[in-house]
Amino acid sequence: MLRPGSWPCIILLYIYGMLATSLVTQAVPIIGDIAQRFGLSHTMSGWVISIPSLITAIGALLGGWLIDRVGDKRVIFAGSMFALVGNIGVFFSHSLGMLFFSRLLEGVGYLSLTVGAVTMVMRTTSGPRRNIAIGLWTSHTAVGIGLTLSIVAPLAGHGDQWRWAFGGHAVLMALLALAAPLLPAKTGDEAARSLSDIWEVVKRRAPYRVALAAGASAFIQTGIMAALTVYLAKTFSIPIKTAAGIGTVAEVFVVIGCVAVGHLLKAGLGARLLALVGGLTVLAGGIGLYLPATALSGAAVAICTFSIGIGLLNGLIWTFVPAAAPSLATLGVTSGLVSQACYLGVLLGPPAIFSSLHPGGWTTRVGYVLIATLLQLAPLPIWTRKARQPVAAQNAHQVLGHG
User: What is the pLDDT along the chain (403 residues), one digit of tens a residue?
Assistant: First the structure.
């Protein structure tokens, strides 16, 4: 068994999160082949992609309570099995019902893995290591998306070869299911949890403040990044491949921003200053990207600037999740609530940005950037004299008080 809070344990949990992200994005490059095979409309194709995210957006809070009740290790193992069975189901699917049911199972796996893994990261770490680990964790989505798209894309346009995106992922999930016993279990002296624990979380303001900030971050990040290739190709008349390459580079800067958070806090940089730097960077990059006078080179610089800023903010926001929990025993419910807000942002962000891709729509997009930045910064508990560094949260639930 891996030692709780050790780097091998943290890296393994990161891999769980990264491969969980693939459960959603593995369908993106090959959705045209899937649509052709099953005769899907554009709307139905969108649902094939979105079902796993939708399950998490609806059920993350209850999933977090289940983690508190039965343990994150068990939920991670169960999530690996759901994802494995779902992948196998898609691989062998020959009917629309089987396809959607299998994607539903993958959604349960996605929820279990993402909420379970981040809860274990927060449960098994403290102090500066917790902030570094959480900052690293917040980069798993960008890394998972980038790797999945690059690996799966070559399968597109080759008949039924798309099935191997799910077959290959099934093999990886089987390996992660076998690795689950290595994860540290909860201590046996913790009291059994009840549904009233959900009320203990939802009746307090602190979790909602962090959830609002996290949801706004997810909204603007996924919205801008999802529409980026189409926006750049249409606006600057460049090939899709070139536009996608710019987006891939930008994702690297998201990772840099996320990973930097914990190290900057450990070095003594104040959370308030870090939030201001991240917010200003997001504004500069997001607004610069959409100004009509911006050239292609300027847009490339702007999206990379936005990416490092959103990475800083996202990483910082998640360092406040342990402090928002009423107690360590309700950490799963709290992370579930924040995750639920995130995936609502993931669902709503892309349609909002795509709907503004029309002549004159740049003002709407700039408005989204301004509002989302404000909503990321304003709820954080860093603007009063009593505000404390997340790095000081050795006993996390004592930092924000009880809302």
Answer: 899 899 999 999 999 999 998 998 888 888 888 989 999 887 788 788 888 888 888 888 888 888 888 889 999 999 999 999 999 999 999 999 999 999 999 999 999 999 999 989 988 998 889 989 999 998 888 888 888 878 888 888 888 999 999 999 999 999 999 999 999 987 655 555 555 667 778 788 999 999 999 999 999 998 898 888 889 988 999 987 788 889 889 989 999 999 999 999 999 999 999 999 999 999 999 999 999 999 999 999 999 999 999 999 999 999 999 988 888 778 888 888 898 899 888 888 888 888 888 888 999 999 999 999 999 999 999 988 665 556 444 444 433 333 3
189 located within any domain = no
| 51-67 residues labelled b (16+ CB within 10 A) or e (exposed) | bbbbbbbbbbbbbbbbb
Two tokens, residue 179? 């690795």
335, 341, 342: which is closest to 64 by C-alpha?
335
- Same domain, residue pair 75 and 134: yes
In a domain, 49, yes or no: yes
Separation of alpha carbons 240 and 27, rounded Å:
18
Residue closest to 327 by CA, chosen among 386, 388, 403, 398: 398
Tell me: do 164 and 216 sit in the same domain. Answer: no
Is pTM beyond 0.85 here?
Answer: no
> Which residues span the domain enclosing 62?
1-180
Please check whether residues 208 and 333 belong to one and the same domain.
Answer: yes
Q: Is the four-CA dihedral 380, 288, 236, 241 of positive or negative sign?
A: negative
Same domain assignment for residues 201 and 170: no
- Calpha distance 324→209 (Å, rounded): 9
Q: What is the CATH classification number for the domain harbouring 63?
A: 1.20.1250.20
Residue 63 forms part of a structural domain: yes
- Which DSSP string corresponds to 50-101? HHHHHHHHHHHHHHHHHHHHH-HHHHHHHHHHHHHHHHHHHHH--SHHHHHH
Pair 38, 185: CB distance under 8 Å: no
- Residue where a domain terminates, one of 180, 204, 235: 180
